[in-house]
């Protein structure tokens, strides 16, 4: 039987194999082995490594873990000098030889298996849209003497009076004006095109559907094709890797931080979802906007559990600086066809096969494996308990009378609020042992450290508001 990883090692004459996995926070980690040591036995047994230094994972007293490569994920790294084949791994618990309960990819795998066990469907399809910023120079300082950050970006709206050694070329988008004039205002077109080329080298030809400048200064999006849930999460990690490294090659710096710029739009990661059974899209039907009753119940589950989901889909303190009114942020927990002010949108499609729902509140700080698994589990809970979401919201939800606005629930206001919601509402994640209490406790503890670090740090705005009190 052909093995993509072993075949690629041989055909490319690779010197190294880079084993990659994703930690709890969503950051890819890697360790490289000589290609000559990767054989059929490694496919079965994996490679041992020390998991004690991975935040939120094992302690030093029980640190041995197994990296088991998934050969279907193999690709040749386009950035390393030495020929290197990259492969994504599952983390295996040595004592049970099962997926580690805190390994994000293993959690997503269990979610896919749980879907099959319910009889609701056999395949979950996901299509995320991670947006990102690219700057020329970013500096920050956090110490006892004070805090500061400074973003330098020739394209940015604030750079009209900056001096550059090559001159100030003057063509740039205004605030919220980046969607989407041609170059030279869109200064990142060529860089995005290279990013798309690298993504297609890794993921496959035809995987990129579109690229364009986004609304904010220095903000971009690369639209990619949907895939099954775990594979799509793999591809999100690959896209991030490409974006970071191509920007670096261009002498720039890219970030998926949701809100690096005050006063302009932030970056989201809208997530398109559907469930298929025996090759039939179960979300297609005769209800609102061409949805099925199953799809409406799925939406109901996502809305019901949204504030708990926020802890996983919006897992940074910075996430909630994006989720504020008037920046096209989907803070209202409602659903609608084409209405981008609702947190759940039903895109217009030309075929019943393409019917899907789009959750608009997630952002790209989310660990894609955890976020997709949690969204699926919330939707399945809605289907199992027939949680109808009520009437659709076809009005502009940013422009409602106060009494009407008060009746529509919202996403969490901050990360600590979202973490408390997850504490109070997580039974739906435990079904089928997809998530575990232990994993969720470790995740919450990790995120509480971030909340606490921000809370105890003196902020320049506090000097502005209180220094002369």
UniProtKB/TrEMBL annotation:
Compartments in which it is found: Cytoplasm
Any GO MF annotation of the entry: glutamine synthetase activity
SMART domains: Gln-synt_C
Keywords tagged on the record: ATP-binding, Cytoplasm, Ligase, Nucleotide-binding
Domain of life: Bacteria
Annotated SUPFAM superfamilies: Glutamine synthetase, N-terminal domain, Glutamine synthetase/guanido kinase
Gene3D superfamilies: Glutamine synthetase, N-terminal domain, Glutamine synthetase/guanido kinase, catalytic domain
Claim: ATP-binding is one of the keywords in the record: yes
Domain GS catalytic, chain residue ranges per copy: 104-469
InterPro entries xrefs: Gln_synt_N (IPR008147), Gln_synt_N_sf (IPR036651), Gln_synth/guanido_kin_cat_dom (IPR014746), Gln_synth_cat_dom (IPR008146), Gln_synth_gly_rich_site (IPR027303), Gln_synth_I (IPR004809), Gln_synth_I_adenylation_site (IPR001637), Gln_synth_N_conserv_site (IPR027302)
Primary residence: cytoplasm
EC number(s) on file: 6.3.1.2
Residue span, GS beta-grasp domain: 12-96
Top EC group: ligase
Reaction equations catalysed: L-glutamate + NH4(+) + ATP = L-glutamine + ADP + phosphate + H(+)
Subunit structure and binding partners: Oligomer of 12 subunits arranged in the form of two hexagons.
Family: Belongs to the glutamine synthetase family.
Entry-linked NCBIfam families: GlnA
Name of this protein: Glutamine synthetase
């Amino acid at each position: 039987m052909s093995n993509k990883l072993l075949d690629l090692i041989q055909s490319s004459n690779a010197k190294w194999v880079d084993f990659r996995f994703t930690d709890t926070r969503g950051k890819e980690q890697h360790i490289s082995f000589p290609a000559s040591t990767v054989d059929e036995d490694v496919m079965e047994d994996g490679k041992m490594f020390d998991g004690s230094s991975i935040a939120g994972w094992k302690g030093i007293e029980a640190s041995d873990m197994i990296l088991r490569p998934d050969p279907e994920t193999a690709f040749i790294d386009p950035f390393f000098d030495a020929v290197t084949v990259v492969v994504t791994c599952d983390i295996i618990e040595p004592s049970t030889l099962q997926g580690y309960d805190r390994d994000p990819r293993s959690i997503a795998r269990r979610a896919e298996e749980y879907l099959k066990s319910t009889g609701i469907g056999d395949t979950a399809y996901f299509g995320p849209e991670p947006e990102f910023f690219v700057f020329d120079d970013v500096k920050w300082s956090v110490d006892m003497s004070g805090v500061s950050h400074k973003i330098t970006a020739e394209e940015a709206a604030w750079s009209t009076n900056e001096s550059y050694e090559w001159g100030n070329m003057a063509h740039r988008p205004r605030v919220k004006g980046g969607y989407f004039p041609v170059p030279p205002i869109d200064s990142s077109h060529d860089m995005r095109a290279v990013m798309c080329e690298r993504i297609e080298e890794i993921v496959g030809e035809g995987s990129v559907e579109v690229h364009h400048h986004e609304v904010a200064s220095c903000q971009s999006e690369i639209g990619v094709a949907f895939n099954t849930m775990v594979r799509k999460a793999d591809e999100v990690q690959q896209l991030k890797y490409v974006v970071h490294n191509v920007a670096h090659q261009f002498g720039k710096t890219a970030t998926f931080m949701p809100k690096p710029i005050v006063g302009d739009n932030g970056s989201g990661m809208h997530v398109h979802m559907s469930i298929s059974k025996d090759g039939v899209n179960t979300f297609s039907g005769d209800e609102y906007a061409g949805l099925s009753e199953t799809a409406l119940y799925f939406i109901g589950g996502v809305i019901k559990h949204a504030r708990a989901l926020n802890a996983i889909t919006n897992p940074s303190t910075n996430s909630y600086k994006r989720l504020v009114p008037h920046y096209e942020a989907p803070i209202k927990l409602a659903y609608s066809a084409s209405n981008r002010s609702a947190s759940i949108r039903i895109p217009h499609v030309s075929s019943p096969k393409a019917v899907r729902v789009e959750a608009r509140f997630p952002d790209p700080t989310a660990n894609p494996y955890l976020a997709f698994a949690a969204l699926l589990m919330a939707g399945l809970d809605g289907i199992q308990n027939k949680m109808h979401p009520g009437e659709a919201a076809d009005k502009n939800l940013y422009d409602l009378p106060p009494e009407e606005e008060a009746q529509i629930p919202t996403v969490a206001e901050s990360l600590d609020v979202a973490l408390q919601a997850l504490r109070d509402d997580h039974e739906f994640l435990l079904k089928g042992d997809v998530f575990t209490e232990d994993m969720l406790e470790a995740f919450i503890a990790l995120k509480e450290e971030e909340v606490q670090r921000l809370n105890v740090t003196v902020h320049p705005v506090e000097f502005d508001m209180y220094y002369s009190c």
